[in-house]
Amino acid sequence: MNRNPLRYAAPTAAALVLALSLSACGASNESDSSDGASTGAAKVTGTLNAGGSTAQQAAVAAWTKAFQTTNSGVTVNYDPVGSGGGREQFIAGGLQVAGSDAALTDDELAKAKTKCKSDVVEVPTYVSPIAVIFNVKGVDKLNLSPKTLGGIFQGTITTWNDAAIKADNPDATLPATKITAVHRSDDSGTTQNFTDYLDQTSEGAWTGKAVQTWPVKGGEGAEGTSGVVAAVKGGDGTIGYADESQAGDLGKASIKVGSDFTAPTAAAASKVLDASEQVSGRAATDIAITVNRKVTDSAVYPIVLVSYQIACQKYDDKAQAALVKAWLTYVTSADGQQVAASSAGSAPLSSAFVTKAQTAVATIAGA
């Protein structure tokens, strides 16, 4: 993905304000180690400035409520600026924690290590299906094969009664309505995950590669997950992609996996991690996952986002380190994962992934 390097060199005014507030207020704790969320754990205080993924927003709200209830002296600020914005502001020094629906690229990782003066802690905190949402009058259920889906978003399939869509839905009455494909207009980890799926599975129908910035002309752009949902809901003949938990009452297509069509559920999405591998060549604290999109088991839904929270392994300020460590310990815990599942419809990390994530988080320390 190409970026304008000036966006790294010149952080936004908001990022500078956050950076100043971090140095001014910091955080303090009552003990050297704490998960900050369990009964009997030492409490932390201070302000935690985080931001990024809009897909994580509902989960972060639930985590914040629980974390601040246990740690009454903590204020958690989360700015849903999108995954790309979160990573950029973290690298620029404006955020203590970034939320991202895509792992750091090699280039970003090098810059983050320079900023942190240490390795980076990058852990999965939120796993969710990306639903293909649609709003077509008279169509309540929709099946789509990967090749058909790729053609729709590539712009080569332009009406709802196209032969390819009919082949996937032989019993449906499909209108001649023009298709309006809605995509994210901002730099988005959800787009990265969605296009990665199309790139791997559509048999060449999608040519835009796996990218975080939408590469194909045409369609309709909308900012953030909520923007895509609103655009699809406000039209007729619209189709888009969004975190399933935020799809509301919109139609959600079932996607062909193997010989069957699979609906976007948290249970089906959670099985992807067991079929995927960790990115090689990175520090033990960097648990970036290469998602296997080509599964053929229809019990697995492969269009998922594995969303991360990203922090430094070392901080100059011990109290700041304790606050970040307590927060990440909580959100990756079994309790934190269940809170997210209940409030945001995400798939809880397996016990093996909880252990792996918390082992990485446990290394966070102050200088």
Please tell me about this protein's structure.
This protein is of the alpha/beta class. Helix content is 36%, strand content 22%. The chain is built from 13 helices and 17 strands. The strands form four sheets. Strands 1, 2, 3, 4, 5, 7, 8, 9, 10 and 15 form a ten-stranded mixed sheet that branches. Strands 6-11-12 form a three-stranded mixed sheet. Strand 7, helix 8 (189-201) and strand 8 form a beta-alpha-beta unit. The chain starts with 5 loop residues before the first helix and ends with a strand. Residues 1-35 have low confidence and may be disordered.
SSE ordering: HHEEHEHEHEEHHEHEHEEEEHEEEEHHHE
**Secondary structure: helix percent:** 25-40%
Poorly predicted runs: 1-35
Label the overall shape.
Answer: elongated
CATH superfamily of the largest domain: Periplasmic binding protein-like II
Tally the helices.
13
From the alpha-carbon coordinates, what is the Rg to the nearest angstrom? 21 Å
Give the termini distance in whole angstroms: 34 Å
Mean pLDDT: 88
Secondary-structure topology with pairs:
Blueprint lengths: L5 H4 L3 H13 L1 E3 L14 E9 L4 H14 L3 E6 L3 H10 L4 E4 L5 H11 L3 E16 L7 E2 L1 H9 L8 H6 L11 E5 L4 H13 L18 E3 L1 H10 L4 E6 L7 E2 L1 E4 L2 E3 L3 H5 L6 E2 L10 E2 L13 E9 L1 E2 L2 H14 L2 H11 L6 H11 L3 E2 L1
Parallel strand pairs: 2-3, 2-4, 6-11, 7-8, 7-9, 16-17
Antiparallel strand pairs: 1-2, 4-15, 5-9, 5-10, 5-15, 11-12, 13-14
